[in-house]
Amino acid sequence: MNLSILKEVKVVPTSSNHNHNSNNEDDFYQTCVYDAGGLNEIRISNLIKTEFFSELPYPYYFVVDHKFIMLKDLNLNIVSTPIKYVLLRYNLNISKYKPLSEYLATVEYPHRFLSTMLDIYSQLLNSLLELEKMNICFFRVSADNIFIDQNSTTVVLSDFKNSLLDSKDTDESNRDFIRILENTTCYTYKPIEIHVIHYLLKVNDAPLSYSSIDEISTYFAEKMEFLNHFNKEYKTKYYHECVRELKSKYLNKPKDHIINEIRRETRKTWDNFALSILFLHIFENMIHVFSLNNTIINELVLILKQNLDPVPIQRHTLSYTVDAVGKLLLKTQDWGFLRLLPKSKTKKLYERIVS
Questions:
Q1: In terms of Cα–Cα distance, which of 180, 177, 248, 186 is closest to 217?
Q2: pLDDT of 165-189, one tens digit each?
Q3: Domains and CATH numbers, the chain
Q4: What is the pTM for the complete model shown?
């Protein structure tokens, strides 16, 4: 039997195999391998429980408690194995929520779609900022790791196995960082410097040469989908700025030095970068489908674009973005254009977003 299928087995334990103190019917259990990812999920969950003082419900799907288990507890006919497993009890039943990628299709009216997306974006900004205050970089922003309560539009972030918890121990932080990047398969929401590390880990670990910098920057400018929202001149400029930034910081530097510098200097921009890509895609498609020029959406898109600068120091922080978006929403008085958005185009909008 392939043990990999046990990585995330959903189970509801009975009194015979698990004793717990909660009778909450919304409790949700998952079994996972007790590896570095599982340990990371538990560590970050413990920090969230200790440090996060927001009113309930929590905007995170995290582990309430855990217990080491034997494979026989899963009632599976399987040979013994030295691999350790833990039964994780979470704070909510995530199966009752929809991932953002699916939730988008349920919003029928365009005016509701826009107001809901603005609300979801604002919630996510604040949730990621709270994590940043705990030295946590979620590092997993995508339409599949963001869950929405359909009744309240409450937003929940899920999956901390490959999130980054900054430690005072630089070597430990770097080891965790490398492990997470080695397990990363999707780079759609990652900035240029993460692509540099991917190159060093997977392609060529020699000191970074000019030809390597050119190869990485060319690939990034040509393949990153968010740049399709910009014209050809902007993409060319983006490529040259990538080359200039990487040359000035990392040319001929060894792999370990580069990884340490990137993690230390730029990681606080990564969640905002990823979130900006996700919502730039949504709002730019709204502008195109509904002809929303000269509206609040245009101003919001300008903020998002600044967060995607190839030079990390030029990107807005999460704190700045929270303030900027809040001020933009407060100053906007004319929302009359919402009444003019034709319902007939909602399907077209959804198809463009998911394509």
A1: 248
A2: 987 667 778 888 999 998 888 899 9
A3: 3-95 (no CATH), 98-354 (1.10.510)
A4: 0.89
